[in-house]
């Protein structure tokens, strides 16, 4: 069964892509507070995509930190009905395209590229032991996937330790794996002052998946938009000409990237796309 289930509405097939939109999933496309206003905004965005994507040549996808199974569970919890053209999950380590005709279609070329990195649980375990010897114990999170292993780190004392991310990156590199380290997200109920630590294959990140999708579809950066809300999205926003933080972005993200959408969550995405569509129609 497709990971998002069968009873979904798929976006129309885009025969001649002219634009690509990359949207971070949690707290960018999807507002976890589930308020009526946020749901209305998301439905408005979905309606625009259903009605306009094919005519405008607009390919739309989610870029998620967590594995596809966690994305699918969140989709079910929040009752999302519309499936995007593609989902890059596990920080882009997994890439799937979706259509009504073919369902879920993993991208073989991307899978082969990621597989060459040699990612394995044994390498992650060796890195964890190495970190423990350095006084950096990690606590496992319940969202491990085929190509991601997720943990949390709580620094001792008050505040975050600026040297911790650097140490984590050095240890991961030593053991032949990649790692994404970023402050936990308060809007997702995560504790203040802690770090999310995601081990992934080397060379995998949101920027890399943007580069790959644009090359695969033959779309220039000038015809690409991206949206995010935290520091883990900044590379993705910088990878395209039209990158935006939604207005509910974290303070850490705002310190690193200045352009904002002018509205929060799906409303911010919708407003920017509509402005671009109006320019196309002129």
Automatic annotation (TrEMBL):
Gene3D superfamilies: HAD superfamily/HAD-like, yhjk (haloacid dehalogenase-like hydrolase protein) domain. One of its GO terms (molecular function) is phosphatase activity. InterPro entries: HAD-like_sf, HAD_sf. Pfam families: Hydrolase_3. Keywords: Hydrolase. GO terms for cellular component: cytosol. This is Haloacid dehalogenase. It comes from Polyangium fumosum.
